[in-house]
Amino acid sequence: MFFGDYQMLLLISGICGLVAFSMTFLTMPRLINKLKDAEIVGKDIHKPTKPIVAEMGGIGILFGFVIAMFVGIWLYPAYHYQFLITLIVILLVGLVGMVDDLVVLSSKEKLILLWLAGLPIMWIAPPNVGIIYMLSMPIAVSIGANLTNMLAGLNGVESGLGAIAMISLTISVIIMGKYNVAIITMAMLGALLAFLFYNRHPSRVFPGDVGTLIIGACIVLVAFIGRVKIIALIVLLPNIIDATLKFYSAGVVERHHHAPTEVGDDGNLVAPDGGFNSLIRSVLRRPMPEKNVVAIVWFIGIIFGAIGIILAYTLNSMII
């Protein structure tokens, strides 16, 4: 054999990343046109001209990820069970996102539906774990998906943060020798990077809930399958901080009740007076361009991503 088992898995993870990137990148132009034709669009409220932008572009992320995971199953069937469970959960979470994009679910409805979508993750629970651990798995899917759905709204912030999280998780699982999990992270990373090309400032398409929800669900799946829960928690800290600020300042409020971030005459974003606090509004202590706000949020994600990698290296060294 020219390749060892781990080398083969690394090669397959790279292939899956390229497949996901290619499928999403090539699909997006046609998908954007189809969404506009179907009038599945929204206003980019953070631009002075309020341009109309296609919504639900996360379908492209979902498509690229699903194709890449099927390629992973075909190339390395030894882990087909874990990969199939991952696919089922991501598809169900994506379906919840599509419903929410089209009819707007309440926070309670979304939490319940995401919990139901996460139930299949219990099939990959380690043996001899208690009922509390089992029940916590779909709850974690619901919470994780909502976390990545909450820190959103600016061009590229969701897909960029998601890509940063996947880079951190990919490096972490490789350091810890969990090469099969790298197939999952690389598949999502490839799809997110391709989508970011269209979602970056100025956005041609928004991810919608179908895109933002599956990012968090994927992080939770990686946490349980790869047993890297602490690292996954660390890469989610920007989202956790954002959610904490919102709950502490306003409690649970439906998103359509939120006052949006304002746009000044010079095109800079301005935090509105009063209302809830958030990570983005904490960054907006003074008016600044949208691109700068997104870059700062990404940088925060990079810091926590780096901490996750350092922790993975430290834990692996302790085991060795």
TrEMBL record:
Q: InterPro entries under this entry? A: Glycosyl_transferase_4
Source organism, top-level taxon: Archaea
Hey, what's the signal peptide range on this chain?
none
Record keywords: Cell membrane, Membrane, Transferase, Transmembrane, Transmembrane helix
Organism of this sequence = Methanobacterium veterum
Stored Pfam families: Glycos_transf_4
GO CC annotation, single: plasma membrane
Q: Where are the transmembrane segments?
A: 6-26, 52-75, 81-99, 111-136, 156-174, 181-198, 210-237, 293-315
Q: Which GO terms describe its molecular function?
A: phosphotransferase activity, for other substituted phosphate groups
Keyword Transmembrane applies = yes
- Entry's Gene Ontology BP terms: cell wall macromolecule biosynthetic process; cell wall organization
Topological type in the membrane: Multi-pass membrane protein
- Identify this protein by name: Multidrug transporter
